[in-house]
Write a structure and sequence with these properties.
The protein is an alpha+beta fold and 231 residues long. The chain has seven helices and ten strands. Helices cover 31% and strands 24% of the residues. Belongs to the L/F-transferase family.
Length: 231
């Protein structure tokens, strides 16, 4: 399978330093309140270690410590590895971005931070080339799992993952890691540990170390051209 390289076009990042607190100097994890999810603001935020995580009002965070994945390490059970080898599924990138986001937001009987505001904002971010999805379809063409996130330069921020069919979200993550490694990505942000990401191999690093690694990863804040061929 061939992977297309990222676009050579480099985005000029608009300055929002008067809106956000400086993540390097503040001890607060909330570094901004309000604003909107326009592409310029999101680009500034993600290239400075900031992400939105609540609505009404919008709250912007830079956590300390920060949870990340090593792109060379993903802990999967023997059952999941067997499913990956069997390949009784199809993997696509960016075929159903909105559907993936809405599936991630579907949390019966519990609240979700992925509100209509987030869906609208990230759909625009996707159309502008910075938010991406990976989908895993079963042999009957049903969407069984997926992941979406933000790619800027050599940095990927994983936003959310879902599985409607057993292990399909983990299969999506496996193929996402593979694609990012092939395209030279150096940092995968998962923001905060939870039981799922911890079990998959995520770990925490100090905020300042994360920001140092991020600055190198987004030095050229190019758009990523995700694979266009089905797996």
């Amino acid at each position: 399978m061939e992977f297309r390289k990222e676009d050579s076009y480099t985005q000029v990042i608009r300055d929002y330093s008067n809106f956000f607190a400086n993540p390097r100097t503040t001890k607060d994890e909330v570094v901004g309140i309000g604003g909107d999810l326009n592409t310029d603001r999101l680009l500034y935020a993600y290239t400075h270690g900031i992400f939105p995580w609540a609505d009404n009002p919008l709250l912007w965070f830079c956590l300390d410590p920060r949870a990340i994945f090593d792109l060379n390490i993903l802990h999967l059970s023997s059952r999941v590895k067997r499913k990956i080898r069997q390949q009784s599924y199809t993997v696509t990138f960016n075929r159903a971005f909105e559907q993936v986001v809405r599936c991630c937001a579907y949390r019966p009987n519990e609240p979700t931070w992925i509100t209509d505001t987030f869906i609208s904002g990230f759909l625009k971010f996707h159309r502008d080339g910075y938010a991406h999805s990976i989908e895993v379809w079963d042999s009957n063409g049903r969407l069984g799992g997926g992941v979406y996130g933000v790619a800027i330069g050599k940095f990927f921020a994983g936003e959310s993952m879902f599985s409607f069919l057993p292990d399909f979200g983990k299969i999506a993550l496996h193929h996402l890691f593979e694609a990012l490694r092939k395209d030279g990505f150096t940092l995968f942000d998962t923001q905060q540990l939870n039981p799922v990401t911890l079990g998959l191999g995520a770990y925490e690093i100090p905020k300042q170390k994360f920001l140092d690694r991020l600055a190198k990863a987004v030095l050229s804040p190019d758009r990523w051209k995700a694979p266009t061929l089905e797996i």
